[in-house]
Structure formats: structure tokens, C-alpha cells
Amino acid sequence: MFVLKNAWSALTHHLWRTLSIVIVAALIASASLFGLAVRQANTAAHGTAYASQQVSAVIRPSAATMAKRNGADPAWTKNYLSWNDYTTYATAAQTAQLQFTYSFTESLPVRQSASFTAIPGSAKPDPKATGGELTLRSFYTKDAAAANDLGTYKIVAGKQLDYAGQDKTGVLVSQQVAARNKLKVGSELKVGDPSDAAKSYAFKVRGIYSYTGNAPKGYGSDAKLAKDNRENVLYSSYYAFGANGFESSTAKNWSVPDLNIMFQVSGVSDYNKFVKIVKAAKLPSTHTVSSPSLEAYNRKIAPLGSLNTKTDLLLYIAWIAGAVLLLALVGLAMRKRRDEISTALIVGVTKPRIGWQLMLEALLPTLLGLAIGMLAGGFGTKPLGTALLKGSDLGAGTINLNAGIIWKVLGLGLCACLALGIIASLRALLLRTGNLFEARKEATR
To answer: Which residues belong to any copy of the ABC3 transporter permease C-terminal domain (predicted)?
Structure first.
């Protein structure tokens, strides 16, 4: 009790120093909890979660090829892959015993009519050169719609496409196009054939959609050609596309459908295997294999990776700076204590007892700071992580604490507190008793 009373007296006598130790210890503990929680979430996102997801793979023109694209040149359709091309790649994958499922989209330009017009682009070429001012895109399944390279969309009026039925006329139109043409669900519209201006097709508005994200560069309001503005896209089921005769093996120029098959494989390792198989099957140099799902996933977790980079740096700074500050504060507390220690030894107090008092002077504030930091980090990590990731596609609670992190920080914190206590106790244990009565000026060093 005597030792504890003396330690408490020393701590309260130098209150600012004591509070500084508490604050520094608390900051280190809370920062450690949060930083390690962010690191764990980032490791999981880039590790098991990344490797185990279902991966979509598509074969599309490379960026270099797309940079040369001329939407007003019908010869561009020579860059389209045919069913025969895709069959070659699928057969090669099956031969290599790679399991996959598939879905696809088919697109082609269609012409506006007198009663149904598109949102104009900045360039206004002859429809004979572009195939039309609108784009008709069909989806084989809802998975193909979900992987739409123009962006995901939601239905704001009417119904979603019927992928399994036999609806020949149902299409989805954008809110902007619907407003421009004063269309509503059930309204009829006509579009013209991309190669034959005299031929038209009748459709009915099944639903009205709006996109849920920003448009890819060159496919929004910045589109030069009207058909490239994604707001001018009519979405249909594959049945409606084929039933109206757009699926043709003898088509030429812009009447050739742009076929995009999406392969679905199990995991990143299978995707990497698929890429090698397709390349070995003589993939044209104008095309490349990519994964919309992996790209979307990487975009999704990018904010977490960025946060982890920052918190990792701050974590090391907190550990190093915090350790230096605590050592300095404890060292400061041990300065000019020789007279006090010498007097205690003269009156019969043993070195171990004095060392225990000095250890308590270091332990009490660091343990209190550790406890406060653990509570602050425990209750604050999740809401702080949610706030810092606000606006990203990551859900709330992505950054969470678990027992492993808590016990790790607590264990290391207790060891650090004990180490500081031992360092403080050495001030008494290493004092040379043979010099107790030397000159006072030497005793105050």
C-alpha cells in the first residue's frame, strides 16, 4: 500500500506528464485496432474473396483497336467475332476440361423514324454511313444484362425484359428518349433497318430505364455519333432480336450483329487458364480477353486499398512516434530522482520495493491509456471505417474488429506497458549504493 500511495502521489504531482502518457498510450491502442482492422479487410478483399468469386470473361477489341474505331465506316464490322470464332474458343476450353457457362449480347444500329427520334450527337453523318441513330441491343439472359458494358440500369416504369418468353416486340427505352418522344409504357415505336431505309420494325415500350452510374467515355452526352450515346440504346430479349430477323449469317455492313459472348468460370485461377486457352486458340491481335466482373470488383475495393495504404503508413508512424514519446515521458519521470531514491534507501526501503514503485508509475498511466484506447477503438472502428468508405460500393461494416485483432493489440499493449515499467524500475535497481553521500550537485544529474 505504501508503494502504491507513493506512486500515485508522484503521478498526481506531475499531472500533465501523467495525462500525456495516458493520451499517447490511448492513441496508439485505438490507432492499432483501426489500422489492423483495415489491413485485415483489405487482405481478405484481395485474397480469398478475390480468388473465390465467379468470374466473367469476355473477348473484345483491344483499347488500341477501339482507338481506331470509326462508327461511320461500315467496314468496321470486320472486327466483330462470329459464332464460329466463339465456337473455336469454347471447344478449346472444353478440350482443356475447363468448366464454364455462357451468356451473350448482340447489338446493331437501327434508324430513327419520323415518329421516334434519337438524342442527337455532335456529329450528324448520313445514316447510310452509320447504320442509324439508335442501337438495338439484345440480352440472352439477365446475367448478360448485368454485365452490360454501357452500365447497369434500373427499371423506373414498366417491366424488366422477359428472357425466357416469346415477346417479339417488347423493348426498354431510356428515360431521356421516352421524354423526348413522349412515350410511356405500352407506347408503340418504329425503327428502320440499318441497311435498308425502306424497311422498318415495330416495337412496344415494355419498360423505361435509367442508368445507375456514369457513362463510359464517349458513350454518354459526349458521344459524337447519336448511336454511341447509351441513352439511345433500345434493350430487348434475344428472342425479340432473332424473331425480327436481325440474327442473320448473310448480313453485311452494319446489318452484321455485334456478338459478345460472356463466359462464366469458377474463380480467378480458371479465368487465368481461360485467357491462356483463348490466346493459344489464335485470338486475333486486335482482340483481348478481359473480365468485367473482376474489373468491377477491383473498382469496388479500390477505396479500401487506398485507405489501407494510408492507414498502414499512419500505423507505423503511430507505433514509432508513440514508442519514442512514451520512452521520453517515462525517462523524464525518472530524471532527478536520485535524491529521492537515496533517501529511501538510507531509511531502509529496499531497492526492489523502490523499483516496484517506479514500475507502477509507468504501468498505471500506460495501462489506463491502453484501456481507454481499446474501448475507443472497439466502439469506433466500425463507424469510422463506414464514414471513410462512404460513397464507395463497399457496404457498411466492411471494416470490422474480430477477437484475433483485439487480443493481438491487447497482448502487445500489455507487453509494451510491462517493458516500460521494467525500464522505469531499472532507475532504482541500477543505482550504486556506494555513492549515496556524494556531493549534491553530482546527485542531481
So the answer is: 314-428
